[in-house]
Amino acid sequence: MDAKVNNRKEYLKKYRAENKESINAYQRQWRAEHPEKVKEYNQRYWAKKLQLAY
Fold this sequence. Notes:
The protein has helices spanning 2-18, 20-33, 35-53. The chain has 54 residues and is mainly alpha-helical. The protein has one domain (1-53). The radius of gyration is 16 Å and the shape is flat. The N and C termini lie far apart (39 Å).
């Protein structure tokens, strides 16, 4: 099982490195089309950070 997990991690790491530009372009496009979801995510993220800090 560990070898399978390692192989998958290595594959995904290599894939992300080779396709960095297209992945970033897709993410920019999605964020432009869904600003409300991005705002909601950021609010949840920072609320969680504040809870952990106190």
